[in-house]
TrEMBL record:
Native source organism of the sequence: Novosphingobium indicum
Signal peptide positions on this chain: 1-18
Name of the protein this chain belongs to: Serine/threonine protein kinase
Region of interest called Disordered, as start-end residue ranges on this chain: 31-53
Lineage: Bacteria, Pseudomonadati, Pseudomonadota, Alphaproteobacteria, Sphingomonadales
Record's keyword terms, sorted: Signal
Amino acid sequence: MKKISGLLLVGCSALALAGCGADDISSPGAGSITINNPTPTPTPTPTPTSGVVTPAASCPSFNATGGLTDSGTITGPEGEWRVCTLPALVDVSSSLPKVSGVLYRLNGRVDVGCDGGFSAPTSAAPFDTTTASCGGRTLTSDTDVTLTIDPGVIVYGENGAEPAWLAVNRGNKINAVGTVSAPIIFTSRQNVVGTNDDASQGQWGGVVLMGRGIVTDCSLGTTAAKTCERDTEGSVNPAVFGGRDNTYNAGTMKYFQIRYSGYVLGANSELQSLTAEGIGSGTTLEYFQSVNSSDDGSEFFGGKPMFKHYIAVNADDDSIDLDTGVEGYFQYLLLLQRDGDGDALMEIDSNGAESDTPRQKTILANFTGVQPSDNSNSDDAAVLIRGNSDITWANGIINVPNNECLRLNGSGTVPATITANSVVMTCNSAIYLGTGSYTAADTKAQFTAGTNNNDTFTSTLASTFVNGTNETGVPAFDAKTLNSFFDTTDYIGAVKNAADTWYRGWTCDNSTADFGSGSACTALPTT
């Protein structure tokens, strides 16, 4: 994530997202707000008078206090929609059903429940509803709140006095399960009215999941005492994540898109697409597409995320960012950056105190990262690994012909490490960078120590990310030997060949990546 320093307290209703390193936190807090919403080129298509969508007669019922507010209609290229605005706090389990002609609106931040604390309440110590509050609102129910979103639902954020984003607080869950033919879409108002183009970004906040997983770089407590928690920077009230439960379940998100997020709050201070803070292995994340985030495709802070089928297209900062003691497991990743924009394909940090435990331990398998040109990024290479991070790669493809591929930063008694097997890289002539105690030769030695690696590979990728002849000829590594979470594959990269179309149907297309889904990211589905 882009650089900003400092920590401020934030409320469960005022969530924000952490940044590039553990000490660099992005925030939706107070400060001058700048919206990065460039004038579309060419001029957007005028709103038609005979769109295929007609507005529903009314909003559906919604269990949370206040229900859904009927905010009238909104017109875009697809027709006219009924706008149903969520309350600022979803205080009891509630559902957003798929209704023809309905869009759901986040008018500023929306909280799913309130913070349930470091540990789950027990029968001996139940949640105290008489004294708890969330953003100044007194609770009338437990924190065990689930927001369910049906397949095909579209939720859009509209910024008011504060940017719009969805915050799922500790002790609460989201159940957003789309399908291949009916993905769930989180997007911006500009996308709805049809003024976006392939360069649009930074128009609303995003989705934030907070959990009780183990974190480092504490705002509260210490790692030594196993009481570490972190504040998310921003506005008045605390929004805390972390605990001791790396099996924490924040819910399920599957077959979903997050478009045009990463709201710009000020210099180097932004929200991003998906942020997972202290979530655990009980959380299910699969089939996700981030589109045109003005910050990271997503960022993971601590905990134990386990994620398959991850796509980040046109992230203006890092395609994936990993921080603060995360124990992550990721398989099938497409990291696709716009020509001339973006920072690193992967930025892998942990905090500056390398003696903190746990060290970050993340495995990424079957990934394909494409960066067409040297984007003059601040990380200097397509992949940056630093802090107390121990990273394992298996079956990877890095195609960045105009940039260095890999930078390791050596700091602390035990600096960051990389272990790679069956990974190929197409880079500029320098290939490696080393900083701190590491030289470029040290970085090279770590990468080449594995099996079937090639740092002077000639890429034959087709259609941007599909394996070609040269990729097919590289022997695969059995990632299942690293952890049972992984599938055994007989190929490197995220996409084996033209017949492998796991990315098709639930995604949207733009000029950087045509997934063959037949649905432009600048448009909305009408069924």
